[in-house]
C-alpha cells in the first residue's frame, strides 16, 4: 500500500515538471535538428561548390551551343547553296516575268523629205514583194541605250510590227531576212518561232517562242500617207525584230523607205 502511494506521488511530481526543466536535452535536440536540416539541404556544400558548378554549367551550355551551331550553319549553307547554286532564270522565264516598257511612237507628214534622204542611203529603199515578210534583226549594243526607226511607202500601205527576242546575242550585225510566207519564215528562223496566218489588219498574235515579247503587234499602216516612227529603250541584251509584212497582198509589191538606228 505504501509502495503504491509512493509510486503515485512520484508520477505526480514527474507530470508537474515542464519540458523547460530539461535544458540540456532541449539544446541538444535543437542543435541536432538544425544539423539535420543543414545536412538535408546541404547549403554549405552548395555554397562552396556553386562557383565551380556554375562554371561547369556554363561550359556545358557552351558545348551544347557549339554542337547545335554546326547544324544551323550547315542548314544555312544548304539554303545558300540552293539559292545560289540554282541556274539563273532562263530567258523563257525572263521574257514571261519581265513586261517591257511600251515604245514611243510618232507620225509625220514630211514624206517627200524622208524619201529623198533615204534614196541616197544604201539599203534604205527596198521592195517588199507580194506575199513576203521582211524582218530586220537589230541587236542591242553596249554603246547605245535605245533603238529608233522611221519608215514610209509609195502608193500603198504595209503591215508593221516589232518584237523583242531575249535569246543571247551571237552576232551584233543588223541583218535582213525575207520570207515568202509565215510557214517558210518559221523554217528559216528558229528564233522567231511560228507565226500565225492571221489577217494583218486584225493584228498579229503573240508568237509561240517564249523568248519573244511583242512590242507592237503587226497592223497595216497607212505609211503611204504619213511617216511612222518611234523609239524604244533597251530592256536588256537581246534582238529587235522589225517586221514589214506584205503577206496579205496577192498582186502588189511595196516600195519601202526605212531606217533603223541607235541612240545614246
Q: Concise description?
A:
The chain has 264 residues and is an alpha+beta fold. It is 37% helix and 27% strand.
Give a written overview of the molecule.
By secondary structure, the protein is α+β, with helices and mostly antiparallel strands. It contains six helices and ten strands, in the order ααααβαβββββαββββ. It has helices spanning 2-16, 23-41, 43-84, 91-97, 111-118, 182-188, and strands spanning 104-108, 125-128, 133-139, 146-153, 158-165, 175-179, 212-221, 227-233, 239-245, 254-263. The protein has a five-stranded antiparallel sheet with strand order 1-8-4-10-2, with helices on one face. Strands 6-3-9-5-7 form a five-stranded antiparallel sheet. The protein is elongated and about 155 Å long. The protein starts with a helix and ends with a strand. The model is unreliable at 18-51, 69-84, 86-93 and 187-197 (pLDDT under 50).
Please give the structural blueprint.
Blueprint: H1 2-16, H2 23-41, H3 43-84, H4 91-97, E1 104-108, H5 111-118, E2 125-128, E3 133-139, E4 146-153, E5 158-165, E6 175-179, H6 182-188, E7 212-221, E8 227-233, E9 239-245, E10 254-263
Antiparallel strand pairs: 1-8, 2-10, 3-6, 3-9, 4-8, 4-10, 5-7, 5-9
* Low-pLDDT windows of residues: 18-51, 69-84, 86-93, 187-197
Whole-angstrom Rg: 49 Å
Task: State the share of residues found in helices, binned by percent.
Answer: 25-40%
What's the mean pLDDT score? 73
Determine the strand fraction and express it as a percent band: 25-35%
How far apart are the first and last residues' alpha carbons, in Å?
141 Å
E-strand count: 10
Alpha plus pi helix count:
6
Shape: elongated
Structural class: alpha+beta
Largest sheet: 5 strands, antiparallel
Identify the strand order in the major beta sheet: 1-8-4-10-2
Sequence of secondary-structure elements = HHHHEHEEEEEHEEEE
